[in-house]
Amino acid sequence: MVTVTGVEPGSRAAHAGIEPGDRLISINGHEIGDILDYRFFETERELRLVLSRGDKEYRLELVKPRYAGLGLEFESYLMDRERSCRNKCVFCFIDQLPKGMRETLYFKDDDDRLSFLFGNYITLTNIDDREVDRILQMHISPINVSVHTMDPELRCRMMNNRFAGESLRHLYRLAKGGVGLNCQIVLCPGLNDGEALEFTLGELCGLEGSLQSVACVPVGLTRYREGLYPLTAFDRETANEALDIIERWGDICKAQRGARTVYASDELYILAGRELPPLEFYEDFPQIENGVGMLRDLEDSFMWAMEEAGDLTLSSPRRVTIPTGECGFEFLNKMLDVLRDRCHNLSIDLVPVRNDFFGGTVNVTGLLTGGDICAKLAGRELGDAVLIANNMLRAGEDVFLDDMTLSELSERLGVTAVRVGGSGEDLFAAVMGIERTDGAGHDPYEYKSWEV
Question: Contact 25/59 with Cβ under 8 angstroms?
Fold first, then answer.
C-alpha cells in the first residue's frame, strides 16, 4: 500500500476521481509496494484498482491504451525508504570520509530498484530469491552489479559479509534468466588483482550473452583510514600488470563475441603511464559512468564542437582558469593546446589541484573540494572566469563536498565561478564564453563529466 501525493491534471487517474492522500493497495490483484510494482502493473490495458480513502476502501475499473500511464504521483521514486548497504567492504570510500560532513554523504545505498532507475551499482547481498523472482518476472534489465571478485571466499573477506559469496548465486540466476548485467570491479592490489582477477573475468565472461560490460577501477584511498584494512594503492608496475590482464580478456571477448566487454578505467591507464586507447576501442562506451573512455569521449566532442564553430576569432581577449584533478591533467592540457593554437587571443590556464582534503592520494576531479581549489588559486591571475566541472558539485546543487557553495568560491576568489556541463561541447562553449541554451550539463542524473 502506497500513498498518492499528486494526480496529474487531465490524466486517467484524475478522470477516475483518485485524489491526493488516497492509498493505492493493488492493481489487478497485485499488491503495490514500490515504484517497480506500480510501473510494471500499470502498463496493462484493463486495470482493476483497489484504493482506500480515510478508513474506507473503494475499487475502480479502467480501460486505457496498453503501456499508457495512470498519472499518479508519489512522494519519492521508491515509495518507501532506500535499502542501505549491509557490507563493510575493505575499500569502501564512505568509510574513508572525515567526520562532520553532511549526513547524506554517509548513506550507503544497495538498492536494486535504484540500479534499474538510475544506474546505481548493487552487491546482491541485500536481495533474496523472492526479489530475484520479481526482477525476472518484470524483465528488469540491465542490472548493475558490484562484483569485485567471483571467488566466494574472497568476496566474503573483501566485503566483510559472510553471505557475500553465497549471494553470487543471484548473479547466475539473473544471467540464466536473460537479464543484462553491467559489472564493476574495484581492484585492490594484493587482494583481487593478479590470479584472482583472471578467475573473476573468466567466470564473468562465462555468463556469455547476459554479460554486457565489465569495468575495472583502481581503489581510491584517503588519509582517513584509521582502523581500516591495510590497503595499498596501485603504482606504475601493479597498474600495468592489471591492465595486461584486463586488455587480454577484452581481446578474448572481442574475438569470441564481437564486443570488447571488459574495460579498465581511464585512471588505471594514467597510473600505469600508458597512453589511453583510441576512441573506437570503447565501442558504444558502456561503462563511461565508471570513468571508462570518459577522456576520449570528452576529447571527441570537444574537437567536434571546435570544428563546428568554424571561425574562432574572439572580439576581445579572453582568459579562463580551469582547476582540475591531477589524474587527467596532462591529457586535458594537450587537448586544450589545440584550441590555444587556433585561438590566439584566448588564454586557458589549466591548474592541477592537489586534493589535500583527502590526503593527496585521491587525484580525480570529481572529489576536489572548494577549499583545496581556493588554496591553489589564491593570488593567481584568474581572468574572466573560473570553470568548475559539473561532477565536483552535488547533483542539482552548487555545493562542493566540503559544503562550500559555488557563490562562496566566487566571492573568495574575486571572480565568477561557472558550473560547466558534462560534455566536450559544454567545455568548449564555457572556455569560449558562448552561451548554451539547451540546458546541457544540468541534468541531476547525468553521469558523464569532463574529467576522470
Answer: no
d(CA 262, CA 204): 10
What is the mean pLDDT, run by run of 10 residues, along the chain of 452 residues?
A: 90 93 92 82 91 93 89 73 74 81 62 57 88 87 94 96 95 95 96 97 94 96 88 95 98 96 97 96 94 95 93 91 94 96 94 92 91 95 95 88 94 95 93 69 34 37
317: preceding bond cis by omega (within 30 degrees):
no
Q: Whole-angstrom Cα distance, residue 378 to residue 362?
A: 21
The cell numbers describing 266, all together, are: 581511464
**C-alpha radius of gyration, the chain, whole number:** 24
Q: 169 near 150, Cβ under 8 Å?
A: no
What's the gap between Cα 147 and its chain centre?
A: 16
What span, in angstroms and rounded, lies between the C-alpha atoms of 144 and 182?
Answer: 5
Q: Choose among 133, 108, 136: nearest CA to 122.
A: 108
Q: Please name the residue that has the C-alpha cell 526479489.
A: 131
Residues in the chain: 452
Q: For residue 50, what are the β-bridge partners?
A: 26, 59
Which positions ≥6 away from 201 have C-beta within 8 Å?
Answer: 214, 245, 246, 249, 262
* Backbone phi, psi, residue 51, to 5°: -130, 170
Mention every residue, 6+ apart, whose C-beta is less than 8 A from residue 8: 14, 71, 72, 73
**DSSP calls for 80-107:** SPPPBP----TT-SGGGSPTTS-GGGG-
Give SS3 for 121.
Answer: coil
CA angle 47, 52, 58 (to 5 degrees): 55
User: Per-residue DSSP letters for 247-281?
Assistant: HHHHHHHHHHHSS--EEE-HHHHHHHTPPPPPGGG
Strands 30-31 and 2-7, bridge-based pairing: unpaired
Other C-beta atoms closer than 10 Å to the C-beta of 39 total 15
Residue closest to 317 by CA, chosen among 257, 381, 225:
381
* Cα–Cα distance for residue pair 449/298, rounded to 1 Å: 8
Q: What is the percent of the chain where pLDDT is above 90?
A: 67
Distance, CA of 387 to CA of 305 (rounded, Å): 18
